[in-house]
């Protein structure tokens, strides 16, 4: 039996017997839920997290990710199945390493793979035969093969023979109570059959259905297409919103009616812009990569342009409302409801609320915000703190702007107590009390 097959068989046995040591690099919205799931079924999991505060919280079983059950985290930490560290010293002890680090954009909308590159170099220093490395971070097609593989093979070890490498894009939907890490179909792609087989086996230990594709590039493209699909359709309804504004039509009425069709349509809704790590960012990864092939993704670029325009449209609509009330922006008091990018979450990465608040501050507006999940934000070095939602905080501002439609907010009470409301999410559109006070996006 060759050394290659021995390494593969040994890793297979460790995975099946749950004796494999699993390293999860990056303990954020993707990494920590994944680490907990693996630890729950018996794997020894070591999380590598550059943020020492987060690492310490994990070791204290202090949960900071809403999608994780507090008791689940406490149990796996107490049982010694999950621990966190801030360094790569234990990489050589790990049998499987899962990379879950950020892949942001630069200021000119080009991919920033610095986190992936740093992590890959850290892994390479401790790389040994018989290890599996998977990348879960969303990226452009070619990252796994063209960025990670060469660094790992500089050690003299070969993919598919000495170590195994694959891409398995995360499909986390923060706040989704129905689809979790365990029951969301998992895509796996690798550029050699040994890597594909062992990666599939690994993910099947905790995920109900694993779907394979024939290359890492295909798996990478699956993910960016999924988020581009959403970005394009959101842009379509956002552009329809701009048109309905010109035509003095209620876009929500149009969409609600269109969505009664039982076939050939899928509900998407407009808003103040897109936020989070996926929709505002991932399509630009595909757009950037396409240029390498002398291909212009006009449709994707236009969608991004429309979505980025929405905070400015909300600003313009704010001006119109204030002008109709005879109030100059520099004299206005405005309360923003919700700064998280998505309802019922505390994540304000890339949130359109931040862009809007920044614009209104530049206009001289006296602005405050309320968000039950985000106690404070920083905009251009200025700290703002969430105010309690009382009768006074609703009644004093000339305008209340609903940006994030958190479920726990009493919108009937909000509309009744506020002077004027701009609703960018359509959450009040069916309220009888909203007829005279509310302007919809």
TrEMBL record:
Q: Would the keyword Oxidoreductase be found if you checked this record's keyword annotation? A: yes
Source superkingdom: Bacteria
Which key words are in the record? NAD, Oxidoreductase
By its UniProt entry, which InterPro entries does this protein fall under? 6-PGluconate_DH-like_C_sf, NAD(P)-bd_dom_sf, UDP-Glc/GDP-Man, UDP-Glc/GDP-Man_DH_C, UDP-Glc/GDP-Man_DH_C_sf, UDP-Glc/GDP-Man_DH_dimer, UDP-Glc/GDP-Man_DH_N, UDP_ManNAc/GlcNAc_DH
A Pfam short name: UDPG_MGDP_dh
**Domain UDP-glucose/GDP-mannose dehydrogenase C-terminal: from-to ranges:** 335-430
Which NCBIfam families did the record assign? NDP-sugDHase
Q: Hey, which family's this protein in?
A: Belongs to the UDP-glucose/GDP-mannose dehydrogenase family.
The name on file for this protein is Nucleotide sugar dehydrogenase
Q: Which organism is it from?
A: Anabaena lutea FACHB-196
């Amino acid at each position: 039996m060759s050394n290659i097959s021995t390494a593969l068989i040994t890793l297979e046995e460790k995975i099946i017997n749950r004796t494999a040591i699993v390293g999860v690099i990056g303990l954020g919205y993707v990494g920590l839920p994944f680490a907990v799931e693996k630890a729950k079924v018996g794997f020894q999991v070591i999380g590598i997290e550059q943020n020492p505060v987060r690492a310490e919280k994990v070791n204290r079983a202090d949960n900071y990710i809403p999608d994780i059950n507090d008791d689940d985290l406490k149990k796996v930490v107490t049982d010694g199945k999950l621990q966190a560290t801030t360094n790569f010293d234990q990489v050589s002890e790990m049998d499987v390493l899962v990379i879950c680090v950020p892949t942001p954009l630069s200021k000119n909308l080009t991919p920033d793979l610095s986190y992936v590159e740093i992590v890959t170099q850290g892994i390479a220093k401790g790389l040994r035969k018989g290890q599996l490395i998977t990348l879960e971070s969303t990226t452009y097609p070619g990252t796994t093969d063209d960025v990670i593989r060469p660094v790992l093979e500089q050690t003299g070890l070969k993919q598919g023979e000495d170590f195994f490498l694959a891409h398995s894009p995360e499909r986390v939907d923060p706040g989704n109570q129905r689809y979790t890490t365990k029951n969301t179909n998992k895509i796996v792609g690798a550029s050699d059959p040994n890597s594909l087989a062992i990666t599939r086996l690994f993910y099947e230990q905790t995920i109900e259905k694993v779907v394979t594709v024939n290359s890492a590039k295909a798996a990478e493209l699956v993910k960016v297409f999924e988020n581009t699909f959403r970005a394009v359709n959101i842009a379509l309804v956002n552009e329809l919103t701009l048109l309905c504004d010109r035509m003095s039509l209620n876009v929500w009425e149009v969409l609600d009616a269109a969505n009664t069709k039982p076939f050939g349509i899928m509900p998407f809704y407009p808003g103040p812009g897109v936020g989070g790590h996926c929709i505002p960012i991932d399509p630009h990864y595909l757009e950037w990569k396409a240029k390498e092939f002398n291909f212009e993704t006009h449709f994707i670029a236009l969608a991004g342009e429309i979505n980025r325009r929405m905070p400015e449209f909300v600003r313009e609509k704010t001006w119109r409302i204030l002008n109709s009330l005879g109030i100059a922006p520099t004299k206005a008091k405005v309360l923003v409801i919700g700064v998280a990018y998505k309802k019922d979450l505390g994540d304000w990465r890339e949130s359109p609320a931040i862009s809007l608040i920044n614009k209104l501050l530049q206009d001289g507006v006296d602005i405050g915000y309320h968000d039950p999940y985000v106690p404070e934000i920083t905009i251009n070095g200025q700290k703002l703190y969430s105010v309690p939602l009382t009768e006074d905080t609703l009644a004093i501002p000339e305008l209340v702007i609903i940006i994030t439609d958190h479920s726990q907010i009493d919108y009937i009470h909000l509309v009744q107590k506020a002077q004027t409301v701009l609703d960018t999410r359509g959450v009040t559109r069916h309220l009888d009390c909203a007829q005279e006070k509310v302007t919809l996006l």
